[in-house]
Amino acid sequence: MKYVNNKTLRRIKTLTELHGAPNFEAPVRSFLRQEMAPFVDTFVNDRMGGVYGVKKSKKDNAPCVMVAAHMDEIGFMITEITKEGFIKFTALGGVANDIWQGQRLKVRTNNDEEIIGVVANIPKHFRTGQEGAPKIEDLLLDIGAENDEEVYQRGVTIGDPIVPHTELHQLSEHRFAAKAWDNRYGCVIAIELLEALKDIELDVDLYVGANVQEEVGLRGAEAATQLIQPDIAFVVDCSPANDMKGRSGLSGQLGKGALLRIKDGTMLLKPAFKTFLLDVAHENEVMYQYYISPGGTDGGVIHKSLTGVPTAVIGVCARYIHSSDSVFDIRDYDNAKKWLMSTIHSLDETKIQHLQYGD
């Protein structure tokens, strides 16, 4: 029960297990630069922390195409260390209150050390029956310290980030469990897009990379867009699947292909862009599914930046995102990768102008 592409699996394992809460994406950024370096001409960085590898066209004044993932995952930040040696924290990103008791989380210190703890959970023996779901700010992380002095001695400080402690696990031939598939999916596909196009000449200048702080309000996307000044953009992001009881509208099913996001809370897909992507999918036998979401992606910021940047989201879905674990189907990733690569390869100035101004 092995996935055939061991290089892809290695990248997925490394990226999903890295510590990368919003505003603390340095480990993810470092890995992206390392993996992209052999396939790009140079890197550009915005001042918020976004990083993009650049593959230049040999054509003068080539159009600029942006492919944007985001590095960050949902997580927490330390707000207090109690005299008994427990750690209190606040949420970074959209997390539910009721799933964290008894879970293992890991703190990353200023010394880049990771310290694992368990979220306090009242045993049934001690419950009164009156307890409701606690708020995030009421939870306590137990790292085994006997008092606050011991916590500080281990290098833990107020403001340090916390993420789930979860390792990649293969569940079946095609399905895996991992934390942070939202959106290390985008980081993996960014690397592998550049790798696949390394020896292919393009009619566009290609900027491929990842933004910061998406999970706390799409904050890094604007800085990256201002830096790159793209003519069109693609966002690669992971979305929640709602298929536990079978098909449920356009809400994503595992194993049914990449997502074509036609509407969400921040963006509508332009008709010309939809037609273009569907043509590419059909020509290249890409399995895809339509998707609608009340949430949003970095596309919500990118598409209305500058004088308008036509933007499409090529995504995948996963179950249970924004929690300590998610379940995804690797076949959806393979279809998304094929779709994105075929789309980029087919772009030229005429097509881009149609996407910008066509109906």
TrEMBL record:
Matching InterPro entries: Peptidase_M42, Peptidase_M42_aminopept, Peptidase_M42_dom2
Keywords, comma-separated and alphabetical: Aminopeptidase, Hydrolase, Metal-binding, Protease
Identification of the protein by name: M42 family metallopeptidase
UniProt lineage: Bacteria, Bacillati, Bacillota, Bacilli, Bacillales
Pfam family, one: Peptidase_M42
Family, as annotated: Belongs to the peptidase M42 family.
